[in-house]
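[agent] plan:
  1. take the single chain provided in the ticket
  2. run structure prediction with default settings
  3. attach structure tokens to the ticket
  4. add a short note for the reviewer (M.T.)
[agent] executing step 1
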Amino acid sequence: MEVRKVFRAGNSFAVSIPADWVREMHLEDQPVQVTRNEQGEIVVRPMPSSGSDITPEFYEAVDRFVAEYGDVLKGLADR
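[agent] step 2 finished; step 3 output follows
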């Protein structure tokens, strides 16, 4: 686990990612997806490779769907 501070970066806020993590995951100069899950955690995910047909908008739609219907989906899975 790493402890980092949130800092101002222009009109936004930022958190640095350890350089070795960025190198290990080949993230330098790559887009990432930043979301907040139902538990209020901030999640940073690498975007799929450019060869993928899945768009960032699709990921956002899935995240919205799960946020809205997650309890229903869990209830169905528990049947």
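[agent] step 4 note for reviewer: Residues 7-77 form one domain.
[agent] ticket updated
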